[in-house]
């Protein structure tokens, strides 16, 4: 008995609670069916802990605090959960709306905002306490209808930029310019195009780009010169004259850009489009396995990895960005949902929802280094996102 | 006479309904129904929510569907809905499978 106690006491200092460690090589994987996430370590390539009780995680996403310790998890059910990834536990959880789609963290890390479908708008919270700072209802038109909000990102200057799906508008909420009522100054851009369904901000934080479901082309706002208004680029980008069914909307986040080219998922077609970054002219259409969902560049820009919509979603293809040819086809399992590169790109982690696993690949040899069992894994998020504009 | 006819009609109808159920159950194997349920919860759930409470697409809970004609739901899944992101599924799913989807939606989707 005494011996046992002694062993326990001796073991204590070795346990995780007393071991100092950084978070720069950590990440989280969303387990969408069970409302949980796993904290992973990309150096050891292991799972460290599981956090439960996160609600409906269909289409969940996260952002990180700037100290890379806390993950803010945005659930479909309006849940906003602050998770301490070092402790592997929930710090605080609130239900902030009936139905939400994603969120962003401000430039200074003090505000977390969530875009909502029901009621349509953006809620902004104190990142420390999750106390409500401001509610911005997305009210538009003569009849004061409320729009679903999509494509919410942070922009330099303590701004949040987002798109109104039903209204066809882009709004900027500026928290460096607060009016007499203590509310953020809102700038609205109307008639930007039909049904903006997702948005992204370029890595330098200058251009906000909204994808349009209802018509071809992309809406672009130059945040250095918002007074110039929203312009249209890539007029032919979209579903085109013969509208093809789209089984999963392509995601704009993680838009692949290399020195010369930008790579886009074609909408409803089995193609990756390659554009010249200088003049936005199309350089090439690359025929691919299915309708692309994520088209993501390895951090060094040498490769672009592509996954596909149902029913072609068991495959990932790798495009060489010099030859613009497919150089590798991988089968990570049924229902590949997401891919995330380690910060310098030597590994990519790929989730296969229906196969119930995450596979880690070496991006130089394409060898599977390990697989981690997960319950219906979807989004994978490494902590280096904490220091990137728009992520 | 009239009464007898009504009873007969009802019994014929019951047989008809009964047969329909049997056909529906026979044509979709247990394995396929697990796959279809997964498709419904996970893939349809990306837009309609895993609990069918809605997202970019509308809510499809039994309570909401009470007010919607079944034919409209079947047609929407089969042909999609132009002007919205809802795609047609007729090239991917058979009519029986779409029927199974509609039955399941009206009964309430089981979470796995």
Describe the structure.
The complex is a heterodimer of chains A (391) and B (112). Chain A is mainly β and 391 residues long. Helices cover 3% and strands 49% of the residues of chain A. In chain A, a hairpin with a 5-residue loop joins β30 and β31. Chain B is mainly alpha-helical and 112 residues long. Chain B has a single domain, classed as Cytochrome c-like domain (Cytochrome Bc1 Complex, Chain D, domain 2, Orthogonal Bundle). Chain B has five helices and no strands. Chain B has helices at 2-27, 30-48, 62-65, 70-79, 95-107. In chain B, α2 packs across α5 and α4 (70-79) packs across α5. Chain B starts with a helix and ends in a 5-residue tail after the last helix. Chain A binds chain B through residues 32-33, 56-59, 76-77, 98-99, 101, 117-118, 148, 150, 165, 195, 197, 213-214, 243, 245-249, 310-311, 335, 353-354, 376, and chain B through 38-39, 41-43, 45-46, 49-51, 53-56, 80, 82-83, 85, 87-88, 92, 111-112.
Question: Which features characterize this protein?
Answer:
heterodimer; A: mainly beta; four-stranded antiparallel beta sheet; 34 strands; B: mainly alpha
Short description:
Chain A has 391 residues and is mainly beta. Helices cover 3% and strands 49% of the residues of chain A. The radius of gyration of chain A is 21 Å and the shape is globular.
- Give the N-to-C terminal Cα separation of chain A: 53 Å
- Which two chains touch over the largest interface? A-B, 32 and 23 residues
Shape of chain B: globular
Instruction: Please state the structural category of chain B.
Output: mainly alpha
CATH architecture of chain B: Orthogonal Bundle
Shape designation of chain A = globular
